[in-house]
Each structure stands twice: as C-alpha cells, then as structure tokens.
C-alpha cells in the first residue's frame, strides 16, 4: 500500500519525538547516578541499544515486511534516528581530545564502532532465530 508523503513525514516526526524522549531519559538516568566518570557512557548506551534495535527492525520491517512500510519510517528514521546520535558521539571524542585523553578517545571510537556493529548483528540474528525457530 502506498501512503501519501505527508503521512510518512508524520510517522517520522512521531517516531523522532519518542526517540528523542527516550534518549533524554537515558541521559537523565546517567546524570542522576551522580558519577561524573560515566562520560561518555550515555552516548555509547543509546548508540548500542539503537544499533541492536536497528538489526531487529531491519529484519522485521524490511526483510520480512511484518508491518506496513510506514512503520519502517516511524521506527528506523524517526525513533532510532532520534535515539542514536553521531553528532554527540563526535562531540564526546572531541572533548576527550581537548582534555588530552587520547587513549580514551581512540578506545571510545573503536569500542563504539565494534560494539554497535555487533549490536546490529545480534539484533538481526536474534530476531531471525526467534521468528524462524
């Protein structure tokens, strides 16, 4: 079924609103811990969780088409696009470099890429296994 473009934009906007609130809640949860040494864990958390959910979403919404196509826009572009954040990831690395924490910056970069890719793969493989037995 073909949806009017405006409906797709509304789905992206709605998903984005939920994703932005979810990201804010994760950052707030870390802030309430009172541990200043958790930087940059909030960004890593939302990116890993988002990558895992992207793997699930790709399999369910694109490869298997378990829901109408508009849900792909809501979930992947909207919700996961707002939940995850490359710009904050970049700022985190910049801040580490600024404070001359070079080892931490490179470790964070490497860990983020590897763990996020692993998260996407695990989400994809996990849901595939669950749905296909």
Structure explained in plain terms:
By secondary structure, the protein is mainly α. It has one domain (5-132). It is built from five helices and no strands. Helix 2 packs parallel to helix 5 (102-132). The radius of gyration is 17 Å and the shape is globular. It starts with a helix and ends with a helix.
Describe the SSE topology:
Blueprint: H1 5-32, H2 41-63, H3 70-83, H4 86-98, H5 102-132
Largest sheet: none
Helix content: over 70%
For this structure, the quaternary state is single chain
**What integer value in Å does the Rg equal?**
17 Å
Q: Report the strand count.
A: 0
Query: What count of domains describes the coordinates?
Result: 1
From the spread of the alpha carbons, the general shape counts as globular
Low-confidence stretches: none
- Give me the number of helical elements: 5
> What structural class do you assign from the helix and strand content?
mainly alpha
Question: What is the straight-line distance between the termini?
Answer: 29 Å
| Helix and strand sequence | HHHHH
Average pLDDT level: 95
Strand fraction equals under 5%
